[in-house]
Fold:
Amino acid sequence: MNDLCCNNSRKEENQKEDFELTANTYYETGDVESAVDAYFQAAEYYEKEGDERALSRVLERIEELLEDIYYPKYYPEHAETSRIRLIEFYTKQFERGSGTYDLLGNQQYLLWKFYFFSGRLGESQKAAFEIFRTNKRYNKKLGVHPFLNAIDKTLVRIYKQSSSLSFSEPYSDMGCKRYETIARKYPLLYMKRLADYYLSQGVKLANSGNETEKAEELFLKAISKYKKSYDDTYETPPSILTAYQNLAILYEQKDRYDKSLRMWRQALRYSRQFAQWDENYLGRVHFFQSAVEKTKTKIG
Structure:
């Protein structure tokens, strides 16, 4: 009977070691994704066993892997879900009294940062709200959330004033004003998103047939924002061609052929530029060249 107990004890000890040994092996072979999953298996085991010291050790290891600059870049979805799981573990640890406010707060902030600097503004808003809720819950007992003040105060205000920040809401002057503010402060992250928003909303308004003046305004804004954006391959985002094309068609529908011609020519100029780097744009060059010639004929 004693031998059986000893065997079970050794089996459990080996099981503990196997979890981390497997994780370490994955990491050493460069399979960080599987390593993180294996460390989470170890964390679940240690949490079940009530081994807080071992749990803290593997959670710290997961945290180190998630902060590797290459991991979120090449495995963004796995990095996101892993960060969320890590926050869940730290939350339970914190509520049991074995974790710290700083550890939990840091992971909440890093999740917000991951969303915001990935251009996922709506999800960054939700992550910020979780920080606000945590701060409200523990402010009196433990003080201000350790990373609350790390979020730009302008962003905090916009988060609280907006019901949605998905860049898909119906057009509104106030909504665009908030997006404009964010794009000015973080142009590399959000200027193109703003341009895309103006373009998509302009298309919707133009197709409705009742808001052509506003559609024209939004297409012009989209073009302006695309010119202030940067594309790694083409310098100017190629979506500017769509904005010019929609604006040219809108002007033609109003018999404003002189303005339409200017838009077709601008589109032709950019398409030629893009074609220098990518021959797939040669078709667009021919299309815009034809549109220029047809519009010139209409003008006479």
Notes: The mean pLDDT is 92. Residues 192 and 250 are 22 Å apart (CA to CA). The first helix runs from residue 2 to 28.
